[in-house]
Design goal:
Blueprint: H1 5-10, H2 12-34, E1 37-38, E2 42-47, H3 52-57, H4 62-85, H5 90-116, H6 125-157, H7 184-208, E3 213-221, E4 224-232, H8 234-238, H9 242-285, E5 286-294, E6 298-300, E7 303-305, E8 318-322, E9 325-326, H10 330-339, E10 345-352, E11 355-362, E12 371-377, H11 385-410, H12 423-432, H13 445-468
Antiparallel strand pairs: 1-2, 2-3, 3-4, 5-8, 5-12, 6-7, 8-9, 8-10, 10-11
């Protein structure tokens, strides 16, 4: 297959490979010039002085209770039982778990309903929600990987190319088979904030339990930060009680979920306050809305959805009304489609070369009709600087929310590899080893924890590998 020079330069694999070569060169220079710790394509930028905000916040006793709540969120009813249930009488233990389950149901539904309940998963989204209550964020992540793995296997079996279930969250790098990429500038801003908040939170709890922090810094690949870290005195940390270690490990994901909720609220607030301004801008910049394309079937990651517009609407038609309300811009059209999302049908008035017609179309499971709409630009209008700034601000807020949400549940994954361990992977052996069958009773606590780690390594490892398959098709 031949590529033009432009196609080659824009190819994600070429961009990634070229950057890896650049990363090797720049890492070599960093090692020679700045004497940094390096590893072929990356380096560690360390600072031995702990940020003052860690010392200040570590004096607040409230973080002890917050961290215990964080453990419960990370591992659900198992985490709750580990913390407060194991030494209680059976009846009291059951009461605590029932109350905890329903409290977690409310919290996790509020946090993850948009992820769990979608047209691809269908009613199986309830499986993910229930498992998130039983096993917390770690269970939510396992359920998502399982449901995505089933979807991938079924599609591959019939020759359909699915989307990958997981992939690298590298701003600017498009994931194969998805057409999706995190925007470069907003993405890196959000990623750095997400990583720093995560590691600062670990640092606060390390100080709270009396563990020395050796260094704090960033992990660079080339010149791009892909991770942050707090380096504790591992010997001192490993000697702490399991509960204290769990509190430290859980705090990072908890901080991310709190930041996600804050920025989601901020996103709604800014949009609410500026909605009239945005509507006026869109209406001024647009001379109408046309139908740019009509699909025979809507295809989302290999899943097909009905396209009721096919054979009825034609590219070039002008959209003038939706459900009796005039449409002058894409903003107007999106608002009207959102209002009709739960309806079965939608009425569209279109202008085809002067012929005005009203079409009644069925909405599919996505709330769409299978047509793509485009704005007719008002060539005399130029967006003011404050409008461009507002758009950028909203994008940054959105990606801070999305990446913090992804970090919160992603880091809860109970997977520990020789080279990297998710926070959940380090917590799982403590949480689950007390529940091993009686046949494991003669094993030491350490041996039990190794059995738990091995179990999750096999189960989660298989799910991860299946979810990665579409990246290489």
């Amino acid at each position: 297959m031949a590529f033009t020079l432009t196609e080659l330069l824009l190819n994600p694999l070429f961009i990634f490979s070229a950057y890896m070569v650049f990363a090797v060169i720049i890492t070599f220079l960093f090692k020679k010039i700045f004497k940094l710790d390096t590893f072929v394509i990356g380096c560690l930028v360390k600072k031995s002085n702990v940020p003052k905000i860690i010392d200040f916040l570590a004096t607040k006793k409230a973080f002890d209770l917050i961290a215990l709540f964080a453990v419960t969120l990370m591992f659900g009813c198992f985490g709750l039982d580990f913390l407060v249930g194991q030494k209680r009488k059976l009846f009291d233990r059951i009461k605590i778990l029932i109350l905890g389950f329903f409290a977690l149901m409310l919290i996790n539904y509020a946090l993850f309903s948009g992820i769990f309940f979608n047209p691809i998963f269908g009613n199986l989204g309830w499986l993910a929600l229930i498992l998130s209550c039983i096993m917390g964020f770690s269970g939510a992540m396992i359920a998502l990987l399982f449901l995505l793995a089933i979807d991938i296997i079924l599609k591959l079996f019939v020759g359909i190319v699915p989307c990958p279930g997981i992939g690298p969250a590298i701003p600017g790098l498009q994931l194969p088979n998805t057409g999706f990429a995190i925007p470069v500038i907003e993405g890196w801003i959000a990623l750095v904030i997400t990583m720093l908040v995560h590691e600062l939170s670990h640092g606060i709890l390390l100080k709270r339990i009396g563990v020395k922090i050796k260094s704090f810094g960033l992990l660079l690949v080339g010149i791009l930060p892909i991770g942050a870290f707090v380096e504790p005195d591992e010997k001192s940390f490993s000697k702490k009680k399991p509960v204290d270690q769990l509190k430290v490990l859980a705090m990072g994901s908890f901080a991310n979920i709190v930041l996600a909720v804050i920025f989601l609220g901020l996103l709604y607030s800014v949009n609410f306050v500026s909605q009239d301004y945005q509507k006026n801008l869109m209406n001024q910049s647009s001379s109408g809305v046309i139908i740019s394309s009509v699909e025979k079937d809507m295809n989302i990651c290999g899943t097909k959805f009905e396209s009721s517009a096919y054979g009825i609407l034609k590219p070039g038609m002008k959209l003038t009304e939706v459900n009796g309300n005039k449409v002058n811009s894409l903003y107007d059209a999106s608002v009207e489609f959102s209002k009709a999302r739960d309806a079965k049908e939608i009425n569209l008035k279109v202008d085809s070369n002067g012929l005005i017609e009203t079409k009644t179309l069925k909405l599919n499971a996505l709330g769409k009709v299978g047509a793509t709409f485009a704005s007719i630009p008002n060539k005399s209008f130029k967006f003011p600087f404050e409008a461009i700034l507002l758009s950028f601000l909203l994008s940054v807020i959105l990606w801070i929310y999305l990446l913090n949400l992804a970090f919160a549940i992603g880091n809860a994954l109970p997977l520990a590899l020789p080279v990297i361990a998710f926070d959940g992977g380090r917590m799982a052996p403590f949480i689950f080893s007390p529940y091993l069958p009686k046949s494991f009773k003669k094993l030491s606590a350490f041996e039990k924890q190794k059995k738990v780690s091995l179990f999750f390594l096999i189960v989660v490892g298989i799910l991860v590998l299946i979810n990665l398959i579409p990246l290489f098709i």
